Amino acid sequence: MEISTALHPDGTAEIAVDAPPVNALTADGWHRLAAAVEAAGAAPRTRAVLLRAEGRGFSAGVDIKEVQRGGGAALVEVNRGCAAAFAAVYACPAPVVAAVQGYCLGGGVGLAGSADVVLAAEDAYFALPEVDRGALGAATHLSRLVPGHLARAMVYTCRPATAAQLHAFGSVLEVVPPGRLREAALEVAGDIAAKDPEVVRRAKESLNGIDPVDPRRSYRFEQGFTFELGLNGAGDRLRDAFVGGGAHPDSGEG
């Protein structure tokens, strides 16, 4: 698993996640991603951040097999890792552009919903399979991407929404062919990077300050119910069924 950062001449810090086969991150992976975003945002030369992933999908969320092997302690640590990564994207002093291709599930929705700008490939789709996996979480971030009633339906049914749907809602800025996603995202990040960095950073701080809901606190509230489901056995029952049935990219958790 690799998380790499490259700083472009225009001040765009490009952070790429490459965790085959489906970009499902372990607790350590979420913490490393948080650290990479925090480091990029803290660097004076960074004017914008591009967050993207290698492979056919942006993120399949949490590595559920790690949770099942490690029990309650692993669940606590992955909860903390996800919270740290989402908070790092949301609170990054420089605006974050997320480039989403293929599946964006569970924790992937948490990342995209924490970003300032989202671009998506034509094949991208967004879903929270948590209810099928005995968990809850990232509804906070889904609600930043789709209207409230659709978010509820997506949580209850685990049904996906397409990039085209999110573009119609205005939460995805552009939908582009998969082969042009990185280029288009770098263009948008470059547009941001071309502005006065002090003004843009104050704009980011001011926009976060007027959010009606702080997603960092809201998400931690959600995570408490995941832990409750783990304690009462529902979480383990559904995750055991998932792990026993074989991994599938449509089964992320956040």
UniProtKB/TrEMBL annotation:
Recorded hits in InterPro entries, A to Z, give: ClpP/crotonase-like_dom_sf (IPR029045), Enoyl-CoA_hydra/iso (IPR001753)
SUPFAM superfamilies, sorted: ClpP/crotonase
The family database entries (Gene3D superfamilies) matched by this protein are listed as: 2-enoyl-CoA Hydratase, Chain A, domain 1
Domain of life the protein comes from: Bacteria
Entry keyword set: Lipid metabolism, Lyase
Family under the similarity heading: Belongs to the enoyl-CoA hydratase/isomerase family.
Kindly provide the name given to this protein in its UniProt entry.
Enoyl-CoA hydratase family protein
